[in-house]
């Protein structure tokens, strides 16, 4: 599969790149500064500011994975980026878009999201709000999309291959802990690319 990966230099993007390569997929890694990418990885430069450039960058891709992370002081930049990615995919052909999403739009009780619950730490409210809007943008688009929400705690860890998947409810263990390693998240994302189960919907993961 030909996959174009945005945000390949970030913590999540690095793990997704490694997982895709390990499974034999052809990955084109895209970054604002391609010099930060591992040697030998096919790379392109793009800052996601122009629809036509994005369309040219993803031409020929079967799937586009967006692990883009906006600046902490302007999290709504992810909205413009998503709008341009949607437009570029519509323009370039029929590539599928998988977005590395957020957990705060997941329900922690019937009809109550983590964001709305009031339990989200204040520093995370801005990015959580922006990512909730990203999901809304995707839902109103006409492209083939998937939004993949991690667990509440999403950190580097072990690649175990043992996890649970869900849809719109936060996945937590019997003690109420919701966590997933970046490595296991990458496994599930590539699984979804290889055997689609969640087209035009959100899904999530946790232990």
Automatic annotation (TrEMBL):
Residue span(s) of domain NAD(P)-binding: 7-193
Top-rank taxon: Bacteria
InterPro entries hit by this protein: NAD(P)-bd_dom, NAD(P)-bd_dom_sf, Polyketide_Oxido-like
GO molecular function: oxidoreductase activity, acting on the CH-NH group of donors, NAD or NADP as acceptor
Matches recorded under Pfam families: NAD_binding_10
Organism, scientific name: Granulicella rosea
The name this protein goes by in its record: NAD(P)-binding domain-containing protein
């Amino acid at each position: 599969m030909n996959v174009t990966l945005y945000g390949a230099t970030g913590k999540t993007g690095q793990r997704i790149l490694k997982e895709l390569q390990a499974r034999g997929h052809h990955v084109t890694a895209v970054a604002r500064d391609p010099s930060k990418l591992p040697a030998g990885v096919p790379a392109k430069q793009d800052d996601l500011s122009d629809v036509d450039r994005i369309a040219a960058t993803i031409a020929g891709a079967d799937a586009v994975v967006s692990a883009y992370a906006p600046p902490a002081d302007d999290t709504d930049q992810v909205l413009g980026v998503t709008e341009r990615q949607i437009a570029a995919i519509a323009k370039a052909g029929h590539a599928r878009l998988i977005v590395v999403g957020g957990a705060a739009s997941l329900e922690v009780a019937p009809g109550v999201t983590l964001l709305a619950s009031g339990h989200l730490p204040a520093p995370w409210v801005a990015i959580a709000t922006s990512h909730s809007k990203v999901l809304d943008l995707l839902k109103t688009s006409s492209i083939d999309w998937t939004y993949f929400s991690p667990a509440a705690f999403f950190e580097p860890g072990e690649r175990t291959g043992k996890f649970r998947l869900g849809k719109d409810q936060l996945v937590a263990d019997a003690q109420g802990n919701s966590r997933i390693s970046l490595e296991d998240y990458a496994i599930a994302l590539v699984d979804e690319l290889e055997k689609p189960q969640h087209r035009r919907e959100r899904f999530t993961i946790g232990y």
